[in-house]
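Researcher: I'd like a structural prediction for the single chain below. Treat it as a standalone chain; there are no partners to consider.
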Amino acid sequence: MSDAPLLIRYFQPGEGPRVGVLRGETVHDVSHCFSALVDVFRDSVGDVDGLIAAVSRAADDSTRRFPATALNKSPTPDVPHWLPPVDAQEVWAAGVTYLDSRRARQEEAADGGDVYARVYTAERPEIFFKASAKNTVGPLDAVGIRADSGWNVPEPELALVINPAMEMLGFTIGNDMSSRDIEGANPLYLPQAKVYTASCAVGPGILLAPSNEWPETTIRLLINRAGAEVFSGSIATDQIKRSIPELIDYLGRSNTYPGGVILLTGAGIVPPAEFTLRADDLVSISIDGIGTLQNRVIVV
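Model: Treating it as a single chain, here is the predicted structure.
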């Protein structure tokens, strides 16, 4: 998995969004072949392997290369910076796909959470809309916690990257920010707990490695506050209950995604009930083979 191309978006002042391939610590600009990520998603339909080969050739031929560290700045219009690997894609999410997630949902639910116990074992998975590009941020940008919630957590997730034909392109990292007290009060409040300004982070890039099997890797979460660690945890991806074909099948039922789609596959790392995020916390999510997604927390 680590040898696959990592496709990224970045911002260049005076030029706007660009598309690149990250190899080691070097960005190879491939905008001369792919002016937007949606081009990659659409061009891959029916020939994912051919598209990946074309991306690799474009990186080989790139005459614009620079250190990835040049992008390590908070996003402002006057400096180069990372962008989320999303332009015309929606972000959706699957819920209660880990045993620990089921337990946490039952713990927070005002009525005991029987609905979460039932969905964990049900034939149909829980799948819900998470974010448009408008509410999705990239590396080193700020993720939001709701001003009307007192119990907010990050949800670190492996994400599936899927083209308009519902074919796997690869994987990325997602953060499904969640207001646990709002959803816990009533499951019907889930859209308010999950969908709001800066409620989703994705990145640093798309690992172009199509597979119908979960990669053998580990998801790690680290939260720092005022320079000190306040929470950390990890989980192996083999703990995900649902299969990749199963999730893609239900995601595609009675729905289409003309620009492709990102599917977050559930969180298995759950901070303790007494923990909540605060403004200026630093959330870092790492997945072996993909990289690290790091975001500062703001109140929205």
